[in-house]
Design brief:
Elements (H helix, E strand, L loop, with lengths): L1 H23 L4 E6 L26 H8 L4 E7 L6 H11 L4 E6 L8 H9 L4 E5 L8 H4 L5 H10 L3 E3 L5 H13 L4 E4 L11 H15 L4 E5 L5 E2 L2 E2 L3 H15 L4 E3 L12 H12 L4 H16 L12
Parallel strand pairs: 1-2, 2-3, 3-4, 4-5, 5-6, 6-7, 7-10
Antiparallel strand pairs: 8-9
Helix pairs in contact: 1-10, 7-8
Length: 318
């Protein structure tokens, strides 16, 4: 019986991979959210921790391509997974040697004395697309917006034509992003992992959440990543499309087809689903959409959000 179960699981995984590949075959795919790191380099890494046996190993572009290339993915954006200043340059140096990586979202703190110098230096590299700030590394965007120099830093980011990305949304972070958009209306903003957001309790709080999402959606410069979508129930990956459709439909209705972006969150996503399984869930949902909508989701909208440029043949451009 155990062998039968294993064969069944293997067959399901293969079917998921085939379905994802078929869905992506007609159009190129840009994965706007992966993480790259190497625990074996001198000094190690801040994340993941050694206790995380699934993630704590070198995670570099060749390994990513083993999973992604067969599914029609032609490029990716590497998003920081370290608060260390020096790791911005490490990630840029890594990306420079791999043309599949079309850009990097780094980590900068507008409160820091060295912020402007770091921003100018990193911006000189065309692969540097902006930085991420949100519910990670012990930060609080809502509180930090009140601190001297923070908004001025975001205005400098907007003037440079770069992108501000959030992380791990909850109601407090979404409300803070509304303040960012109002204070710096020309700043491009990307909201990470919105399908996985922590929803507030109570009818009043939920209504405020909906109102804030609509405020963000009203800005022409706010984009949303449909990342961290897969969930598990009773220890098993949920694959039924009907489970995911209501939440994804709601976000699609609020933000519209010009604002949604694909991101896998690999390899962090491996805790929940394989790359092929993650991609299959997203592809099945998007398969119901017209081709122009799928193109926007899988690559066009990411260019609008990040201004990335193709580095090799097969990577699309507007």
């Amino acid at each position: 019986m155990q062998r039968r179960a294993m064969l069944k699981l293997a067959g399901m995984s293969a079917i998921a991979t085939m379905a994802a590949a078929e869905s992506a075959a007609a159009i190129p795919v840009l994965d706007a959210h992966i993480h790259l790191y190497d625990p074996l380099r001198p000094g190690g890494v801040v994340w993941p921790e050694k206790s995380d046996t699934m993630l704590y190993r070198p995670t570099l572009p060749p390994r990513y391509l083993e999973h992604a290339a067969r599914l029609g993915v032609v490029g990716a954006i590497a998003v920081e997974c370290s608060p260390l200043r020096a790791d911005n340059q490490w990630l840029l140096n890594l990306a420079a040697g791999h043309r599949e990586i079309v850009g990097v979202i780094g980590d900068l703190d507008p409160r820091a004395a060295e912020f402007r110098g770091d921003l100018d230096r990193l911006h000189a590299d065309p692969l540097f697309l902006g930085f991420r700030y949100g519910n990670l590394w012990g930060r609080d965007l809502a509180a930090d917006l009140e601190k001297p120099g923070f908004l001025e830093g975001l205005k400098a980011l907007a003037q440079a034509g770069l992108t501000f990305e959030s992380a791990n949304p909850d109601a407090r972070l979404i409300a803070a992003l509304c303040r960012v958009v109002e204070a710096v209306p020309d700043l491009r903003v990307v909201v990470d992992h919105l399908p996985h957001a922590v929803l507030p309790d109570g009818a009043v709080a939920l209504q405020a959440w909906q109102t804030d999402l609509q405020r963000l959606a009203a800005s022409p410069h706010v984009f949303v990543k449909l990342s961290e979508i897969p969930v598990r129930s009773d220890g098993k990956l949920v694959t039924a499309p009907g489970v995911y459709k209501p939440a994804l439909d709601a976000l699609s209705e609020i933000f519209g087809e010009d604002k949604l972006i694909f991101g896998s969150d690999w390899p962090n996503s491996d805790h929940v689903a394989s790359y092929a399984e993650t991609f299959a869930i997203v592809s099945r949902y998007m398969a119901t959409k017209p081709l122009p909508v799928r193109e926007k989701f899988f690559w066009r909208n990411s260019i609008a959000a990040y201004r990335w440029r193709p580095r090799k043949s097969g990577q699309p451009s507007l």
